[in-house]
């Protein structure tokens, strides 16, 4: 089923309900939202010759037009190709060419940058707000979304490409249906009075999470700044009420820090779903202490979007269970529509408590990589997606991630999981952030190196951190070197770029 059907149904049931907001200002109700999407779909098909299954790229910062473009693309039966707005124009152009996108939507500033790099196959570039975009919005409406099947592509998401060129993850209508239904079953409810606030990039999971809010006829809000500003989000949430948002762990940390400093408890925020990177135990304990039971955790990948495991709010907030710390340090239990296995190199399930690669299979798992049979065959084996993450399952089914398989440090023949060392460092009162990588060593194979960001004005020496680690983890796991930095390199989704940290070591 075409995802745009959910928008049509929401508009039919509650046409005058507020749909699209900038801050506290309503810009469109559901009748207008659906009408704009139907008009864009008609213009794509009629004026630009976009056919079902064609790819349409979206290179844009967060905006209400982004949501209209999504549903316009789906109305026409085409495939949305969201592109990270912070990529270099040449990187974005490579994705546009690889996906064979026939048309590109862009924010005005980004359109100017990409124009000179567009491949010849692109028939048109339409910038949000320009004459061509306004003409699309004024087109005669498509009477209904183009019929699409469960296995037809809806979303072509390009991975970050930290090891070579990014790969296009093929996400079908059925994959997204399963993700939305799992959200309702395992993460949180959505009601028409709720508001989805987009502070993380719409090109990633935050944007994909729009569908369950459209299905339920909830509000969709972009901030006036268009980005993540903690004070703006707290103020907006207090005014709107019943706000849902997705946030990377680094965003949660910034929000909690601002809430503490301002005396806020997050009034108006109903749910913060966090994921997209490691949430350290100390950080989520503090977050719940400051803002209360507003947090849910999900674990997913582009290849199984937002839908591998979940830790719902009652478990995030629970402090009565004797194992609450272990549960909170996990990423939760398998979501309803998937099976999760921790396996050895041959794919055999490992016993409880033994570390191995996390495998997942089920309805949300991708169809494969776009025109890359070799990569698809490596990632999808016997129906299982090999995630590249190392984890451990306990007897209750809680999955605790150790690290990405490529990030595991092997020192003297022993595996050391950087996250375990990072967790120990982050319990030091003077450590704000920490990231651990391996450095090649002729004797040991690799040694552990910690990059540390101190709290401003907090004195701490290497010897202090060494004693702190020795009190908490085995001697062989402790860092052999501590490098103090002003900030850790991150992508626009808040993930620490360990490849850049390793490059810094190579330059030493």
Please provide a written account of the structure:
The structure is a single chain. The model has no long low-confidence stretch (mean pLDDT 93). Helices cover 34% and strands 27% of the residues. The N and C termini lie far apart (55 Å). Among the domains are: 4-16 and 23-175, Rossmann fold; 408-507, GMP Synthetase, Chain A, domain 3, CATH 3.30.300.30. The chain is of the alpha/beta class and 508 residues long.
Features:
508 residues, alpha/beta, Rossmann fold, GMP Synthetase, Chain A, domain 3, 9-stranded mixed beta sheet, 5-stranded antiparallel beta sheet, 18 helices, 26 strands, globular
Write a concise synopsis of the structure shown:
With 508 residues, the chain is α/β, with parallel strands linked by helices. Helix content is 34%, strand content 27%. The strands form 6 sheets. Strands 2-1-10-9-11-12-13-14-15 form a 9-stranded mixed beta sheet.
What topology emerges from the helices and strands here?
Blueprint: H1 4-13, E1 18-22, E2 25-29, H2 30-46, E3 55-59, H3 64-75, E4 79-83, H4 89-99, E5 103-106, H5 108-114, E6 124-127, H6 131-137, E7 153-158, E8 168-172, H7 173-187, E9 195-198, H8 205-208, H9 210-215, E10 219-222, H10 230-240, E11 243-247, H11 249-262, E12 269-274, H12 281-291, E13 295-301, E14 304-311, H13 313-317, H14 324-329, E15 333-334, E16 338-343, E17 356-362, E18 368-369, H15 373-379, E19 380-381, E20 384-393, E21 399-404, E22 409-411, E23 414-416, H16 418-426, E24 431-441, E25 445-454, H17 462-470, E26 481-484, H18 498-507
């Amino acid at each position: 089923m075409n995802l745009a059907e959910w928008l049509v149904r929401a508009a039919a049931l509650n046409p005058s309900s507020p749909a699209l907001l900038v801050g506290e200002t309503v810009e469109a109700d559901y009748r207008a939202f659906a009408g704009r999407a139907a008009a864009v779909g008609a213009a794509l098909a009629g004026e630009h010759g976009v056919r079902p299954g064609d790819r349409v790229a979206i290179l844009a910062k967060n905006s209400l037009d982004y949501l209209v473009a999504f549903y316009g693309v789906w109305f026409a039966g085409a495939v949305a190709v969201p592109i990270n707005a912070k990529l270099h124009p040449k990187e974005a152009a490579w994705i546009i060419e690889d996906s064979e996108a026939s048309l590109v939507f862009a924010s005005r500033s980004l359109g100017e940058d990409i124009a000179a790099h567009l491949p010849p196959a692109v028939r048109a570039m339409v910038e949000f707000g320009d004459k061509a975009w306004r003409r699309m919005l004024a087109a005669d409406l498509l009477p209904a979304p183009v019929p699409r099947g469960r296995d037809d592509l809806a979303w072509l998401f390009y991975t970050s490409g930290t090891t070579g060129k990014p790969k296009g993850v093929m996400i079908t209508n059925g994959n997204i249906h399963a993700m939305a239904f799992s959200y309702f079953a395992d993460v949180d409810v959505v009601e028409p009075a709720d508001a989805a606030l987009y502070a993380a990039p719409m090109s990633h999971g935050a944007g994909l999470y729009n569908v369950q809010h459209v299905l339920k006829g909830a509000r969709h809000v972009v901030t006036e700044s268009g980005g993540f500003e903690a004070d703006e989000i707290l103020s907006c949430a207090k005014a709107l009420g019943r706000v849902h948002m997705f946030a990377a762990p680094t965003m949660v940390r910034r929000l909690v820090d601002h809430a503490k400093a301002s005396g806020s408890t997050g009034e108006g925020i109903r749910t913060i779903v966090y994921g997209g990177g490691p949430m350290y135990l100390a950080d989520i304990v503090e977050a719940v202490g400051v803002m209360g039971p507003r947090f849910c955790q999900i674990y997913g990948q582009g290849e199984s979007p937002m839908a591998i495991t979940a830790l719902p709010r009652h478990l995030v907030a629970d402090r009565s269970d004797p194992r609450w710390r272990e549960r909170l340090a996990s990423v939760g239990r398998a979501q309803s529509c998937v099976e999760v296995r921790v396996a050895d190199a041959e794919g055999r399930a490992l016993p409880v408590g033994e570390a191995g690669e996390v495998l997942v299979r089920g309805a949300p798992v991708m169809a494969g990589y776009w025109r890359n049979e070799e990569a698809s065959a490596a990632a999808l084996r016997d129906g299982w997606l090999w995630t590249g993450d190392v984890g451990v399952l306990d007897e209750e089914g809680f999955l605790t991630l150790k690290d990405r398989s490529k990030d595991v440090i092997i020192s003297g023949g022993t595996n050391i999981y950087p996250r375990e060392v990072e967790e120990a460092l982050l319990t030091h009162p003077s450590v704000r952030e920490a990231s651990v990588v391996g450095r090649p060593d002729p004797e040991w194979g690799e040694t552990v190196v910690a990059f540390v960001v101190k709290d401003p004005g907090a004195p701490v020496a290497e010897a202090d951190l060494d004693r702190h680690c020795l009190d908490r983890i085995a001697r062989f796991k402790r860092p052999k070197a501590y490098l103090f930095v002003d900030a850790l390199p991150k992508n626009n989704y808040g993930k620490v770029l360990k490849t850049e940290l390793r490059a810094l070591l190579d330059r030493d």
